[in-house]
């Protein structure tokens, strides 16, 4: 596998590491998303421990408003985090 393919597989694995904990095995509940954000993106998202911030992120990701974040919806978060990381590398 190439380096990029390894990173992509890592993103999928991180999603599943949290999605299997509660409810449907292939979606994130709000609690699972909160755990993922606080453990995996704590240095990327400001005020990540603030409940209002978690609620806002969850609502923004849950495009079909089914109270779950599926992988397609999760990809939006990954794209935003990746864009922020890219911006940060140019800022240094």
UniProtKB/TrEMBL annotation:
The keyword Calcium applies. Transmembrane segments: none annotated. One of its GO terms (biological process) is xenobiotic metabolic process. Pfam families: S_100. Residues 49-84 form the EF-hand domain. Keywords: Calcium, Metal-binding, Repeat. PROSITE patterns: EF_HAND_2, S100_CABP. One of its GO terms (cellular component) is nucleus. GO terms for molecular function: calcium ion binding; calcium-dependent protein binding; identical protein binding; RAGE receptor binding. PANTHER family: PROTEIN S100-A12 (PTHR11639:SF77), S100 CALCIUM-BINDING PROTEIN (PTHR11639). This is S100 calcium binding protein A12. It comes from Pan paniscus. The gene is S100A12.
């Amino acid at each position: 596998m190439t380096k990029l393919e390894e990173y992509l597989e890592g993103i999928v694995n991180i999603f599943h590491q949290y999605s299997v904990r509660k409810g449907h095995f292939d979606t994130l509940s709000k609690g699972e998303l909160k755990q993922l954000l606080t453990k995996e993106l704590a240095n990327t998202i400001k005020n990540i421990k603030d409940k209002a911030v978690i609620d806002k992120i969850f609502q923004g990701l849950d495009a079909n408003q089914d109270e779950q974040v599926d992988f397609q919806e999760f990809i939006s978060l990954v794209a935003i985090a990746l864009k922020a990381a890219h911006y940060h590398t140019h800022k240094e």
